[in-house]
Amino acid sequence: MNNLNNPIPLNDRAYLRSLGYQVGERGRFSTEMKDELAKRDWQPSVQEVFKPEVKPEREGRQLYGYDKQGNKIAFVICHLCSSHMIWCRCSKGVHAPRYIHSSKDPLVYIPPVAV
Ligand SMILES: [Zn+2]
User: Fold this and answer.
1) What is the pTM of this model?
2) Contact of 90 with 81, CB cutoff 8 Å
């Protein structure tokens, strides 16, 4: 895979796949794979690695809800898509964790409790 129109280098996993390795989305690299990465003639810059591909959906902040006992609980991860609230694009809003039963926050969606 050598596309001159695409100046962004492959990340480690994509690079190893291009060499024929079976590489999952997570997990450690084998010694063999680490050797291949060390031999590679470029290193992705920090800027390239962390460059977001799309804009966040919203500004980051903590979301609040209340549990059964009325305790105020903060959260930032959507229970449905497991994304941080800045990236969550769930149509109904950021899904609250199961232990949250109510919220006054307009961004928060409380899924109906399964009976
Ligand atoms: Zn979500």
Assistant:
1) 0.53
2) yes
